[in-house]
Write a structure and sequence with these properties.
By secondary structure, the chain is mostly helical. It has nine helices and four strands; from the N terminus they run H-E-E-H-H-H-E-E-H-H-H-H-H.
Length: about 270
């Protein structure tokens, strides 16, 4: 962008100088009645001879003693072009110098402005709510992750989570420890989606018996082992429990016995 500005300023200054020089040449030729001594013109249009812009310089040297006033005025016209070109160059330099430069000695990070927000498509009508910018919601609807970090009671829930759940029409899995998000948004989301509450301590909770998913036959041992590993070592860290191995073996045996002895219709009660 800066190189383009320099080029435009240079072209403007050069054009002004050439136009004024050409105007001085044509004015001097007109004052001298286009005499043959001036030489051959570039173009002759309906009796009007157009000379090369720089021919006034050779005429000045050859005929200045015969018509000093004419060439003095023609030189003044040509000089105006130089002055105007210099003014354009100085004006451009002054304009660039007056622009506030951002110091990047300690980095170039800065707060986003309106152009940055619009360029990131954060003013669209869908996506995760990020905040407010000039009375318009900022939303992110891209594949990138969104992480909000703020102190307790600073408004993360009411400012970001709840507006998102009330406007997000896609699927969502919410880790709702206090149950506030379910209480405030489940009614609305159930109008266009299927909402499930999973809380084993709540009578309203959806129920899931993992034993019903055990596949009889060659996959039976592996499925029971997976369930036992989840229950005995939920963090997936080896050595997290003192008797991890013996505990897992006990759970595997008990689970397999339940699957083998109890009918599938009674597994819900057995769990």
């Amino acid at each position: 962008m800066l190189d383009r500005t320099y080029a435009l300023e240079a072209v403007a200054a050069l054009s002004l100088a050439i136009v004024c020089l050409w105007a001085g040449t044509q004015w001097a030729a007109a004052m001298l009645a286009y005499q043959p001594a001036l030489g051959t013109a570039w173009i002759d249009i309906l009796g009007i001879k157009i000379y090369a812009p720089w021919q006034v310089l050779s005429w000045w040297i050859a005929f200045d003693h015969q018509a000093p006033d004419v060439f003095a005025r023609a030189g003044a016209v040509a000089a105006v072009g130089g002055l105007l070109g210099g003014a354009v160059a100085l004006g451009g330099a002054a304009r660039r110098a007056s622009r506030r430069t951002v110091a990047t000695t300690y980095g170039s990070a800065r707060w986003a402005d309106a152009s940055d927000v619009a360029g990131a498509h954060l003013l669209d009508d869908r996506g995760v709510v990020l905040g407010l910018h000039h009375d318009r919601y900022l939303r992110h609807d891209g594949p990138e992750h969104v992480l909000a970090i703020a102190p307790t009671r600073s408004g993360k829930g009411v400012g970001l989570v709840l507006p998102t759940l009330l406007t997000w029409t896609g699927s969502a899995v919410i880790h709702d420890i206090k149950g506030e998000n379910w209480a405030l948004t489940a009614g609305w989301r159930s109008r266009f989606s299927h909402c499930l509450l999973f809380d084993p301590t709540d009578p309203r909770s959806a129920r899931f018996n993992p034993l019903l998913e055990v596949r009889k036959g060659v996959h039976e041992v592996r499925d029971i082992q997976n369930i036992a590993d989840i229950l005995v070592d939920p963090d997936g860290a080896a050595g997290a429990y003192v008797d991890r191995t013996r505990g897992a073996d006990s759970v595997r045996g008990a689970r397999r016995g339940l699957v083998a002895l109890h009918p599938r219709r009674r597994l819900r009660q057995a769990s």
